[in-house]
Amino acid sequence: MTQQEQDEQEQQQVKLFFSRNLLEWYQGQKRDLPWRRHRNPYYIWISEIMLQQTRVDTVIPYFNRFIERFPTVEALADAPEEDVLKCWEGLGYYSRARNLQHAAKQVKELHGGQVPNDRDAVFSLKGVGPYTAGAILSIAFNRPEPAVDGNVMRVLSRYFLLEDDIAKGPTRVKMEYLAAELIPEGEAMHFNQALMELGALVCTPKSPRCLPCPVMEHCAARLAGCETSLPVKTKAKPPRPEERLAALIEGRGAHAGRVLIRQRPASGLLARMWELPHWPAPPAEGAAPSARLPEAAALDRLRRSLRTAGLSARPEEHWMAAEHTFSHIVWTLQVYRCREEAVLPQPLAAEGRVPYQHAGAANTAVQAGIQGEDSLYPESGVFLDGTPVELFADGNESPEDSGAIRWINREDMANYAFPNVFLKLLNLYFAELEGKPQ
Ligand code: SF4
């Protein structure tokens, strides 16, 4: 036998050891998770989408509520989008929820409501990438498809001492071949979950628990003493900081005890979710990009932004700061209490619509030093009676898909889906209003 043949044989043994020991370990150690209690492809699909970027403990109550509210593909496909977003509220990455509903409609229309047991069909569902497709096909249908995510790449990098950069596409492809090779015949369902489970419970990112690890004996990184320096991963660019001014508009008269919320446009970041109106607040000239505007300038800019957006309110004082982090951007929201103004002929409508002016456009107007408020102020009365308006600063949006406004109290919050940061701010505000500590 040549040296090469001997090496290949050894490598084969190392792979067999890995697959066998991992499966045995999983049978004894697997967690009892709600989506593992039934082999329902729909449940598996929902759980896999929820688990992207989110911890298992966080997902469990969301999963249970979601399945109770939308027990079948058809129920999800036919639900109002607002209900789906409300059920997702707090989980973040809301495009997952929208894509999920879009894909449920695809499954209903093209596959009679049954999640397809077919690689191409699963791949064609909106929001389903290689990992999720592999997870659905293997866990629900026991098909020998790899399901390779960050956890799995970490385990494989360590066990096989692979120093390829896992942030790079070709590394993922290589890992998928390797993971597929490791699946024992007829065991895809258990093996893929075992691999995920090992990454989640034992071979964790910072402090892998090598001593109780079922594959320690042949783990190359452990034998070389370099398990904590793997996997190799180039750092993603840090999210860009962006200062924003947000308006907590407190109602008066008929709106006393309520605050004004606005709906985001139908596409883009946090599409169709509800929020306090807010706009970017670029720093003063010469200041650091993340520098907060001086108070007087912030109040002035917010007053102009409110006017530009057709919101008749006067900023009064800084209330608090809050952060919202996306993968590419971090908003620091400086929230100001604002009063609904009384000088106008009629108060803002309880339910109305204002232009969802893209913040950039509003800000450009402010930055350009447009002084005459009348020129920024919308046509007289247009925004005050709740009717749609035609005037959109950047021309990209239509009244149908953006800018709806509502006056809400705490109870009304149940009817609208908010990104986390606004959910927290509104809960704090209403608790403060009721004199309750939060
Ligand atoms: S021995 Fe340690 S580094 Fe290797 S797979 Fe197990 S936990 Fe991970």
UniProtKB/TrEMBL annotation:
Keywords per UniProt:
4Fe-4S, DNA damage, DNA repair, Glycosidase, Hydrolase, Iron, Iron-sulfur, Metal-binding
Question: Required co-factor?
Answer: [4Fe-4S] cluster
**What Enzyme Commission number does this protein have?**
3.2.2.31
Q: Name one GO biological process term.
A: mismatch repair
Residue intervals of the HhH-GPD domain: 50-201
InterPro entries per the UniProt record, alphabetical: A/G_AdeGlyc_MutY, DNA_glycosylase, Endouclease-III_FeS-bd_BS, HhH-GPD_domain, HhH_base_excis_C, MIG/MutY, MutY_C, NUDIX_hydrolase-like_dom_sf
Molecular function (GO) terms for this protein are:
4 iron, 4 sulfur cluster binding; 8-oxo-7,8-dihydroguanine DNA N-glycosylase activity; adenine/guanine mispair binding; metal ion binding; oxidized purine DNA binding; purine-specific mismatch base pair DNA N-glycosylase activity
Reaction equations catalysed: Hydrolyzes free adenine bases from 7,8-dihydro-8-oxoguanine:adenine mismatched double-stranded DNA, leaving an apurinic site
Enzyme class, spelled out? hydrolase
Keyword Amino-acid biosynthesis present in the record's keywords: the answer is: no
Q: Does the keyword DNA damage apply?
A: yes
| Highest taxon of source | Bacteria
Similarity-based family: Belongs to the Nth/MutY family.
Summarize the protein's role.
Adenine glycosylase active on G-A mispairs. MutY also corrects error-prone DNA synthesis past GO lesions which are due to the oxidatively damaged form of guanine: 7,8-dihydro-8-oxoguanine (8-oxo-dGTP).
Protein name from the UniProt record: Adenine DNA glycosylase
Its lineage opens with:
Bacteria, Bacillati, Bacillota, Bacilli, Bacillales
